[in-house]
Design goal:
heterodimer, A: 481 residues, mainly alpha, two-stranded antiparallel ribbon, 2 strands, 72% helix, B: 629 residues, 25 helices, globular
């Protein structure tokens, strides 16, 4: 065996290195549980994982030529570097946000676990993205799901965290089982699971259709599309906010990207079928999620439904099935990432300081915390797609991709839903700026890590739309998909 | 010349910096930041102009059109995209000099004029924004970029006119300026859309192969609509009503925006599209000439009777822009020797006018600063107290009246020659308007510096010369006004780009000088002495005409009637009713039904995992059924 093939997986290898370093460091400096917690050292800080991950991002940031390893089990194309970089940026922001939460009395001694678990899921996503075979893909998927359940239950003595973990693992198992069943049917009908060999043999017979739908519903679970979304609100509400934000952005973004590549690469002969499925799924996802979002009182549940409808928009890039759709999708994920993480950063910060997560608690926030309100407003504007924020441009590109592929009705439905979404996003803005409140959440100062995460999100929300170089860079690589 | 991008970036950074951090800076520091930035911009502009015009010409005798910076901003289709960049050609480089010079003078002048005003830092930050937008407008590589900056110019003008936001008149004026120009810009935008649809590009020079079938027939419409936008910004009749009111802004702002730069944007736009006008829409070009001539006459006649000196200057500006439009409009060919002379004349007049008109405004600012009033009744006899201002104002008056050797003579002479070449009637009309110009300018000159002195007020206020920050710009601009006429302008700018040698045609020159001198003599006769019996008796004799002109021929009242009575009363009120009762009703109904629907499906979200799995499976089965059936 040629061991130099491992070098082709430099992104995964470097991430594993980061995990191992963190693991070893954590072994040696982790403080004892219930030890005198006021004393230093309190285990590893936020700085180490952030710096390591930044280094890992930087050394892999330049896309290299397409390669494959292990007889095609692992396949790399330059576009994957972009999406992996995007996921890394999101993870770094999440780490920065997590600082204060992890410093709490009941979590500081296990903060090392948080980084290792999170990075393990990220590693799983990496494998999923670069898989060239369904087996590899499935391993990646599971690696991304199982630690996620542990993360959801991270605050197991608080809130509904344990419940969230349990619900997540149960539904994840169910969907994985269904997905695996689908994959086995595919193997049964065509006798191979290599992505490159499959399109020639697929002919769209009944069993393959069933296999496809099972596969699709498994992915639909990860992306939380209606009707595979029911776990979302409960898990988002119960899990710690930082985990929720990771779940809503990183996990979802990677799954959407993988779904698109597999649909285009593997299920190319069944394009008519999957476009029809997506058409209905997008329509009901956006619409139903919007209907639910309107009446939420809990901000985390609210963000859950907002995330479902955003997933519907992301799928517009998938349904177009074109290179333009691919670049619009990656760009959308990037823009959605900064906006959503920006909103979650504010929610998380406020929950840490005041324990409040209801929309009514935000009444009059502007008077006490104007900067947080401002960031939240921009993030919501970007999510709603109001120009000149980045969200407008990403929606513009993704609608255009779908429109060019002939889905005029679908774009129209999505546009109408954009207006509805504007309504509920503005409800929060209204609460912060207009609603009167005698006792708004008290003024507080955020720590430097949180401030850094705010700054990154702010720059992204305001700047991404104008820096057309980013979209063009994505666009150029999309053709090499 | 990639550095030219900094001509745009520097003022923008200064705007951001002063806008965000100005609150914590002293007035002096904020002013210095703005002025030094603009100084750097001006230095870069001069360098650019020097390098550009000293570079060797191309084989066909023209200067190369350079695009040192360009990037794609919004791609629409493979061929149609919105670019952002910097374009250098003779007229954009000329505009660079005009804008940066006047803007720098105004920056320096404002140190003295705005001293101690509340919001001094805000003022300088807006000035930076304006400079950036105006420079971006002239450097635009395509019509859409121009439109973006065009609107930015409108916004910064709005902000600056309404700078004294505690004064209701200033607020009303800023709104009026914004709404009227925005209204005209609607035409511009539609023009751009028509142009890009049929031309397949946003570029200024569409490939004839890209034109859609029948596209050439649509070009006159597109260009005509664009001219409406230009007419709004350049205050052509009947869209001129905002400019006199815009004088509510600080006087240096009037000098910069409403005399030298923004108001000539319309002229610049027509000049920019000039090759297309000549090829596709010569008829529209003639409409431009007629609109310009009428506006020039109309504004000049109003300027003869106004008593507020800034208003007189405002109407004079409108009238002079009319001259520039006429010069462009009378062109019939791309060759300056065969009827394309007006293009050069227009750009030349734009250049000289920018200098002497900003000088006039800055002088007016000096005077207003001393007597605390815009009305001529508060002035008179000021030559004794303010000698520098007096001489500078006189130079500018001589220039605008077309007396050699001051710059206005040379450019106006070219306009008159071009008009006479087009048709003798047009030539004589423009010559008479030139005479009116000389008359009303010397009317206010004598009204301010000679005439009846308001002794009572002057004893109380003791008018005197202003500090050096205010007089130095006057001296510089007066110097430019004295020598600018001798610039061999045709060597740099002409309708086909080749060098054109300006010949002063003796008969035209003599005509214009004689008309100018006669008009000045008339003004001396009527207004120089402490009492003005002739002027008063004329005003009594033609009372109706005088009152009508004094009220600006009631154009504002017509607008009031049309907007308030007809549009608001007959159209807006019924629409508002429909909106409130029917549209809102429908929306409320849809909101209510959305709410009701979400209420009825909320049981799906029960919190029970078993049920989630069940729905999950049902969903998958439903999809299978969908595909199989």
């Amino acid at each position: 065996m040629d061991y130099s093939q491992f070098l082709n997986m430099k992104e995964e290898i470097s991430l594993i290195t980061v995990i191992l370093i963190l693991f070893v460091v954590d072994l040696f400096i982790a403080p004892e549980e219930k030890s005198s917690c006021k004393k230093y050292p309190r285990g590893m800080g936020t700085l180490l994982p952030v710096v390591l991950l930044t280094i890992q991002t930087l050394i892999n940031i330049v896309p290299s030529a397409p390669v494959e390893a292990f007889g095609g089990m692992y396949q790399y194309v330059p576009m994957q570097t972009i999406i992996k970089t995007v996921l890394n940026i999101g993870t770094i922001i999440v780490f920065l946000m997590a600082h204060e939460w992890l410093n709490r009395e009941d979590t500081y001694f296990k903060r090392g676990e948080f980084y290792i678990l999170t990075l393990s899921t990220l590693l799983g996503m990496y494998f999923m993205i670069s898989a060239g075979h369904f087996l590899m893909f499935f391993i990646g998927l599971e690696l991304a799901s199982v630690p996620m359940a542990a993360l959801a239950a991270f605050d197991k003595y608080r809130h509904h965290s344990a419940e969230a973990g349990a619900k997540y693992i149960l539904t994840a198992l169910f969907s994985s089982a269904l997905l695996l069943f689908g994959i086995s049917m595919l193997y049964g009908t065509i006798g191979t699971l290599y992505f490159s060999d499959m399109p020639a043999k697929l002919d769209g017979d009944m069993l393959q259709i069933m296999a496809f739908v099972f596969f699709f519903s498994g992915m639909g679970f990860k992306i939380s599309l209606v009707p595979f979304h029911l776990w979302t609100a409960d898990v988002y509400e119960g899990a710690p906010v930082v985990v929720t934000s990771y779940l809503s952005v990183i996990s979802k973004g990677s799954a959407a990207f993988v779904l698109m590549t597999i649909l285009i690469k593997v299920f190319a002969p069944m394009v008519a079928q999957w476009q029809e499925v997506l058409f209905w799924i997008i329509t009901i996802s956006i619409t139903i999620a919007n209907l639910f979002a309107i009446r939420q009182q809990n901000l985390k549940r609210f963000m859950a439904f907002s995330a479902i409808s955003q997933a519907g928009y992301i799928m517009l890039g998938v349904i177009s099935g074109s290179a333009q759709g691919m670049s619009a999708l990656v760009y959308y994920i990037l823009v959605y990432l900064v906006a959503n993480l920006g909103a979650f950063a504010v929610i998380s910060n406020i929950e840490q300081r005041s324990g409040k997560v209801e929309i009514d608690d935000y009444n009059g926030l502007y008077q006490t915390n104007p900067k947080l309100s401002f960031l939240m407003t921009l993030a919501l504007f970007s999510l709603a797609g109001i120009p000149p924020f980045a969200g407008f441009f990403s929606k513009f590109y993704i609608f255009m991709a779908a429109f060019h592929s002939g889905f005029h009705l679908l774009v129209f439905i999505a546009l109408i839903n954009t207006i509805i979404s504007l309504y509920y996003y503005l409800l929060i803005v209204k609460a912060m700026y207009i609603n009167q409140n005698d006792a708004p959440i008290a003024t507080f100062k955020s720590d430097v890590y949180a401030k850094t995460s705010f700054a990154i999100c702010l720059v992204g929300i305001v700047g991404l739309g104008f820096v057309s170089i980013i979209y063009q860079a994505i666009d150029q690589l999309a053709f090499g998909m | 010349m990639e550095y030219t991008i900094f001509i745009l970036i520097l003022p923008f950074l200064s705007f951001l910096f002063l806008g965000l951090a100005g609150k914590w800076m002293s007035h002096r520091a904020a002013g210095l930041v703005g002025t030094l930035t603009l100084g750097a911009v001006a230095a870069m502009s001069y360098l650019t102009a020097f390098l550009y015009f000293t570079a060797p010409r191309l084989a066909d005798g023209t200067f190369a059109t350079l695009i040192p910076v360009n990037f794609e901003w919004l791609p629409f289709t493979s061929t149609l995209s919105i670019d952002m960049g910097v374009l250098l050609d003779p007229i954009s480089v000329m505009m660079l000099i005009v804008i940066s010079t006047v803007s720098l003078m105004v920056h320096i002048y404002s140190f003295g004029y705005m001293k101690g005003e509340r919001g001094f830092q805000r003022y300088y930050s807006f000035l930076s924004l304006f400079s950036m937008s105006m420079l971006g407008l002239v450097l635009a590589t395509n019509i859409f970029q121009m439109y973006v900056y065009w609107e930015l110019v409108g916004v910064s003008s709005y902000l600056l006119i309404g700078f004294f936001y505690t004064r209701p008149a200033a607020i009303a004026a800023s709104k009026k300026a914004f709404i009227v120009t925005r209204f005209a810009d609607l035409g511009f935008l539609i023009g751009i859309l028509v142009y890009s649809y049929y031309g397949g590009t946003f570029s200024f020079h569409p490939d004839s192969s890209m034109l859609m079938a029948g596209g050439a027939a649509m070009m006159p419409l597109a260009l005509g609509l664009m001219f409406i936008g230009g007419a709004g910004k350049s205050a052509m009749f009947p869209l001129h009503i905002w400019l006199p009111d815009a004088m509510e802004g600080p006087t240096p702002v009037s000098a910069l925006i409403h005399a030298a730069t923004m108001v000539v944007a319309g002229v610049y736009l027509v000049a920019r599209m000039f090759p297309l006008f000549i090829v596709y829409a010569p008829g529209v070009l003639h409409i431009v000439a007629y609109v310009g001539a009428f506006t020039a006459f109309f504004a000049a006649s109003i300027a003869c009777v106004q008593s507020d000196i800034k208003r007189v200057l405002a109407f004079s500006t409108i009238s002079q822009i009319g001259f520039m439009m006429v010069a462009l409009g009378v062109c019939t060919s791309l060759d300056p020797n065969l009827g394309g002379l007006g293009y050069m004349a227009s750009m030349f007049h734009l250049f000289t006018h920018a200098m002497f008109k900003s000088l006039l405004f800055l002088c007016a600012g000096c005077i207003i600063e001393q007597v605390h009033s815009n009305e001529m009744s508060a002035m008179g006899g000021l030559r004794k107290y303010m000698p520098v201002t007096h001489i500078a104002f006189l130079i500018a008056c001589l220039a605008i009246s077309g007396i050699p050797p001051f710059s206005g003579f040379f450019s106006k002479d070219e306009i008159l020659t071009a008009s006479f070449n087009f048709s003798p009637i047009m030539g004589w009309v423009m010559a008479i308007i030139a005479g009116m110009t000389a008359f009303y300018m010397f009317r206010i000159y004598f009204g301010i510096f000679w005439g009846t002195e308001n002794k009572e007020l002057h004893e109380k206020l003791h008018p005197h010369e202003n500090p050096l920050t205010m007089t130095i710009p006057l001296v510089i601009l007066a110097g430019i006004t004295c020598v600018a006429g001798f610039i061999p302008f045709g060597q740099f700018i002409s309708s086909n780009g080749q060098a054109y040698h300006i010949d002063i045609e003796l008969s035209t020159a003599l005509t214009s000088i004689i008309i100018g001198v006669v008009s000045i003599a008339l003004a001396i006769f009527m207004y120089m002495r402490p009492t003005q019996p002739v002027a008063d008796s004329l005003a009594r004799k033609f009372k109706e005409l005088y009152t009508a002109a004094y009220h600006r021929f009631y154009v504002d009242e017509v607008y009031q009637f049309i907007t308030h009575r007809i549009i608001f009363g007959c159209i807006s009120t019924p629409i508002a009713w429909i909106d409130r009762h029917i549209i809102d009703g429908l929306l409320n109904f849809s909101a209510w039904s959305a709410y009701a629907t979400s209420d009825s499906i909320r049981s799906l979200q029960s919190g029970r995992v078993q049920q989630y799995a069940f729905v999950f499976l049902l969903g998958a089965l439903a999809l299978i059924l969908l595909l199989i059936l």
